[in-house]
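agent: user wants the structure for Cytochrome ubiquinol oxidase subunit I from Methylocystis hirsuta. delegating to structure tool.
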Amino acid sequence: MPERQSDPKRLPNETPRPPGELEELERAWAYPPGWRKISEINNSLVGVIYIGAAFLFFLLAGVLALIMRVQLSHGDNRFIGQDLYNQIFTVHGTTMMFLFAVPVMEALSVILLPQMLAARDLPFPRLSAFAVWAYVIGGLVFFSTIFYGLSPSGGWFMYPPLTLTRFSPGDNADFWLLGIGFIEISAIAGAIEIIVGMLRTRPPGMTLDKMPLFGWSMLVFAAMIVFAFPAVILATMMLEIERSFGWPFFNAAQSGDPLLWQHLFWFFGHPEVYIIFLPGAGLVSMIVPTMAQRPLIGYRLIVVALIATGFFSFGLWVHHMFSTGIPALSLGFFSAASMAVAVPSGIQVFSWIATIAAARDRFRLSTPSLFILGFLFIFAIGGLTGVMVAVVPFDLQAHDSYFIVAHFHYVLVGGMVFPLFATFYYWDPMISRNRLSERLGRYVFWLMFVGFNVAFFPMHVSGLLGMPRRVWTYPRAMGWDTLNMISTIGAFILALGVLVFVVDIFVRFRRDWETQRTQTNPWNAGTLEWLPSDLYSMRSVPIVTSRYPLWDRPNLAEDVAAGAYYLPNAATGRRETIVTSPIEARPEYLLEMPGPGWAHMFSAVFTAAFFLLLTVKAVAIALVCGALAIFATLVWCWQLDPPPRGRVEIGGGISLPTYMSGPSSHAWWAMIVLILVAASLYITFVFSYLYLWTVSPQVWPVVGASPLPDLRWAASGASLMLLSILAFRMADRALPKPGSISLSAALLMIAGALCLIAGVGIEGYAQWRSGLRPGENSYGAMVYLEIVLTGQLVATVAVMTGFALARLFTGKLDAQRRVSFESAALLAYYTAAQGLLGFLLIYGFPRMLE
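agent: tool returned. relaying tokens verbatim.
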């Protein structure tokens, strides 16, 4: 960025701005009228829908919790039957973990991050909208199963063999497996949006060390989703395949192992705890400095702590499996790792306490502050009990008891729900014209704080007295009645607090859907989200020179609102935002953003229908819906990648290009993140393959014996994979100049895709010809699963290649306008690399054993 623009005292633009400029900006970002408003993709609308849906699921799951507490209030209770209790128990846990905890944090990021970054919007607003509608549809259908007896009853962790077809016949478990797998796709879509948005749409000057801590926490949160969620996606895929087709991954009678499910589930499940906690910590790190009216103490340490927590969390999954017969050396390692994660968490807690203690004048004791203090108290107890269960001998005693129920509710509710309610009260002036009641807010806090501790603290004691978790009733003679009755009373007090909050929301929440104008900075906060904003976010994009720009530059709000900074207009006449470099946040190009549309919504609807119809075995209709989903997605993507419009002025003498490809493009970054997801999924598969070999080495073939195909098959398949890479590389160089069509580029793209298809086809044929069948044993199941995993990528590359060809022959793809080709080529390169690794594993590993 030129020196002139880095000087905050020299504003990029002169004011007043030309007449009509603001009206043009408002026109570009206006919502569609009437019922067409639901086709809008602006974060200010999509984010509110997202939060509303997530909170609805929180309320529904809370009602289920109350029903369970009534059932457990005294021994030998017959309020509800065992099967219904198990369904309610499963849906409660699943809804809280998958439909509330993670989505509500992604929802907050959709609505808060663009404001904190002073960006017009995140870079893929239609992807965000797709994720929201997919989540809403899939979540509502899944939850509704409780009303017609189709809910799963195997617990939110769905351990096999209980969830195998033999013990769980019917479609109940399939609703969990396909429904949750589908919702995880929505979560990953949100993670891609967050990562690219945080790294590429920061305002000029906001280097990484000036990024808001909520942004840092969401960046780590999204990275954890990328690496953790593929494990549960693979696990649900394997269990559903075993239930539907009999491939024995978890059936011990056919050389599978049910413990593999626990490894995969908790490799996702334990990071999930921190995936939920870290955004909450980021929210606290934003609220505490405002209430203390001073910068947060230990900013850099907190950033390191956030990254360290994310890193450590992947080494703790066995923490949940101490009682499953793990070797002693592993127990020692994972016990130490479980304790070590308390260090970065402690750094954050001490930084918040130090900031509160060093407050100017006095720490402001408002409703958000009360929820923050409540969070510190509850989370500290949860953390201490976490260290207790990290000690192996204690865990062996407390495992599967109500002590664990108390522990994880103290961690999750303390670490996430209390910061969330602090967020509602802190940021509601940014969204609503009326602030929530401060007086009622204090009632809400005390009811929730007292109710929570009355409900869950006695569970520590009942657990230590031997009460097991996951039971629908217990004998009166056990002496647990009093403690359980106290817990039930506490649960209703907690629910009363939530009810008062809901009433306050209905009475006071007012939002003008045609504008974003609300109250401006009532807390005297120092970060950008409190700048004056409208549907287009800020009137102009400021230069950032500190972590608290509103405190350091008192006139910043007025200058931004007057259009004195960058991009005070709709430079291209359409929606747009500035894309900056990932480290230094230097302006690189102007991203033209899509407007309202229906294709993403139809894509979400038909994708949901595809998964849900598969659940009830309506395969033919499901396939039709799957084809419609692909068609709607292609229509959606066809509208992207607009033609270059030359360079445009954004102010301060800076002109930016309106098109970018290659590693500087936001689309390239998104594809790289998607490839990381695919790579995580495949690494998890490799782990599963090697794990099952350690369990059942006798079913792995030996050299020269059936069913191990000859190496010539592997050589042929690998050669085709390499040829595919070469073909796409040559097609890249053969892309035509703008305005022309290259037949050689088209033929090379077709050749590249056909090589991939043939490579996977040869592998499948060779295995089938050797006599290996997927339902025979765990080895056969893993070999054919490898073909499925690579085959689905090959199918995606084929569709993307066809899409690129269509754009090539319609003049929308050339050597300059080339993003659609680059995306297909990147995925093709990765697919070929994964295929090569697959040949090495399937053909090389059994021979290496010899």
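agent: one observation worth passing along. The chain has two domains: 45-511, 692-849.
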